[in-house]
Design brief:
- There is one protein chain.
- The chain has 308 residues and is α+β, with helices and mostly antiparallel strands.
- 25% of the residues lie in helices and 25% in strands.
- The chain has eight helices and 15 strands.
- The strands form four sheets. Strands 5-6-7-9-8-11-12-10 form an eight-stranded antiparallel beta sheet, covered by helices on one side.
- β1 and β2 form a beta hairpin.
- The termini are far apart.
- GO terms for molecular function: ATP binding; ATP:ADP adenylyltransferase activity.
């Protein structure tokens, strides 16, 4: 696994082989098209699980615009080999063999999510397999975020789910990245136009696109202090940071304190809090509509009436 440079993609007995050119320049980085192409090859090779039959529906629910991502035909699915029995590296609980793309500096690398909800669905993982998801983001994390976003001209959202209350199911420290087009190209629509209808507390900062990693970290730390006050919890070395989301692109950062994953068995991840509700079946979608997305995300966050 090397720097993000030019690549050739070949197939050998059903396995995708990455041939990386030596000395690729920084101006010759992977494009979004490259990522989609390789993503499709790995999905075809069963190294990534992704259902191409999923469709998106747009609904307005209690003043909030919701995108519901669901299978086009619940009786039609793709059968792919499970990655559950493959052992990750020591210290990690995330399997990335065969899906790793490139390094993002000395402390992080880029890989595809083996169980993808989006196309492509990327992960930015720490090269130290013993770093944990309860830890707050640091300067090396933001350097990796900026390297990734600068590769793709701000066409991706990067998000961090801290702890189980924020929807995190893995301990190895990582961020995720998804295309803005997953939200019909408008990931911030609810915040910009329906902010008064959003029932939970969030902290938002807009900034110039030439923001440095250090400046991004400073904004994150300011938001984390707000999370600590909302949840009445402190960041400690043993327990890590209070549960929260961090979502950003090259022009905005949003931090959302979390007190629960949702209303069992339904939960909202970062996309859900922004209005992208990802469900695996019509039955699950009906449960969302019966309970109400606004109630689920309010339970997961801090209600505005009490969050301040």
């Amino acid at each position: 696994m090397g720097d993000c440079g030019t690549i050739e993609r070949k197939s050998n007995e059903g396995q995708v082989i990455w041939v990386r050119s030596a000395g690729a320049s920084s101006n010759n980085t992977l494009t979004e098209f490259d990522l989609e192409t390789v993503f499709d090859l790995l999905a075809e090779d069963s190294l990534i699980q992704y259902d191409y039959s999923f469709l998106t529906e747009i609904r307005n629910i209690n003043g909030i615009r919701a995108l519901e991502h669901k299978p086009a035909d619940v009786h039609k699915g793709i059968t792919l080999q499970s990655l559950a029995n493959d052992n990750p590296r020591p210290g990690s609980d995330i399997f990335t063999a065969g899906t790793e793309v490139c390094t993002l500096g000395p402390a992080h690398f880029l890989a595809f999510n083996g169980f993808s909800s989006y196309r492509p669905h990327c992960m930015i993982l720490t090269a130290n397999w013993y770093r944990r998801q309860r830890e707050p983001l640091d300067i090396e994390d933001y350097r990796a975020i900026h390297r990734f976003l600068n590769m793709h001209n701000s066409e991706f959202l990067v998000f961090f789910n801290c702890k189980a209350e924020a929807g995190c199911s893995r301990d190895h420290k990582h961020l995720q990245a998804i295309p803005k087009m997953s939200f019909e190209g408008e990931p911030w629509l609810n915040l910009d136009h329906y902010g008064d209808a959003l029932p939970f507390t969030y902290y938002e900062r807009k900034f110039a696109q030439d923001l440095t990693p250090h400046a991004s970290l400073e904004l994150y730390q300011q938001g984390l202090q707000q999370v600590e006050r909302s949840l009445v919890q402190k960041t400690t070395e043993d327990d890590g940071a209070p549960p929260h989301y961090m979502i950003m692109d090259r022009g905005r950062m949003v931090i959302i304190p979390r007190r629960a994953a949702g209303i069992y068995p339904l939960g909202a991840n970062s996309g859900g809090m922004l209005g992208m509700i990802w469900v695996k079946s019509e039955e699950t979608m009906r449960k969302w509509l019966e309970i109400g997305p606004d109630k689920i995300i309010t339970t997961g966050g801090i209600p505005k009436t009490t969050g301040g």
